Each structure stands twice: as structure tokens, then as C-alpha cells.
Amino acid sequence: PILKAMDFSVLNMPVSGIASLPYEIQLGGQQISIINFKTLENVREQAAKNTFLIVRMQNPEKSLAENIIDAGADAIIGYGETQMPYEIYKGKPIFYSLGNFIGNTNDDEGLAVGMVLDQHSAQYFIFPLTLQDDRPALLYGSQKSVTFTSPLRIK
Description:
The strands form two sheets. Strands 1-2-3-4-6-5 form a six-stranded mixed sheet, covered by helices on one side. Strands 7, 8, 9 and 10 form a four-stranded antiparallel sheet that branches. The two termini are 18 Å apart. The chain has helices at 40-49, 62-70; strands at 23-27, 30-36, 52-58, 75-79, 84-89, 92-97, 109-117, 121-132, 135-138, 146-151. By secondary structure, it is mainly beta. Strand 8 and strand 9 (135-138) form a beta hairpin.
């Protein structure tokens, strides 16, 4: 694999908490970037330069999220105070909001997302979390983790 178990939990922080975006890395000859959403044109430009592009934004609306995937993003990581559903659109994941354990929120559930990236696909691992004694803990039983794979763009 090019990239193993990338932890998206840092992407769930408010914009002010991530001074290092855009984040770019070269692994195995592949260019991987994580950017904050600005415009669809910016997504198109970044998608043309990168093998794999993750777009981060606050509470994306469904139509905009789909347009971002259509513009070339490989995944969308949404953040906000409340965990929202995720979906697969054209083989690409859209996480509308992972939830937020930080700040003034009464929400005690969220998601952690990890991934393994190889030459041809990205495998995602979704871990449902809850707060126990003011610390995130994995949910078990009926709330098991989910795994899925999506193909990479071939340049």
C-alpha cells in the first residue's frame, strides 16, 4: 500500500484548528492532497495535479458535494457539530459530517475514518464512536465498523 490507516480525525477539527491545509504528500510516485473547499474550479485544478484528492468542508449540501465529486475529488470529509450520514456517489465517499466531540455540543456520537491507499484503490474504514467518561470510545455490537473500497482515477 502507498498509504496505510490514514486517520481523518484531524479533518474533523474547525478550520482554525488546521493551519497546515492544503496537505500534500508524495508516496510511491503518487501525489496525494487534502484541501479545504474553496470553489469547484479549485477542485478541478487540484484534481488535475493529484492522483488522489480529499476535499474537506463544513456540512456540505448533497448537490454541492456531488458537484465536488464530479469536479474530480476522490473523497469529501465533512465536519460539523452533529454526525450526519455518509454515502457513496459514483464510487466515491461523501462523509457529510463526522460529528464533533470538541466544543459546545451535546452530541455524544461521531465517526473516525481511516484509509489504505494502493496503486488502484482506496479502502476506507469507518469506526462509529461514542463518548464514555468524556473520551471517545468505539461502539460495538450493532454499531460495528464498516469497510468499503473505491477505485482510484488512473492518470
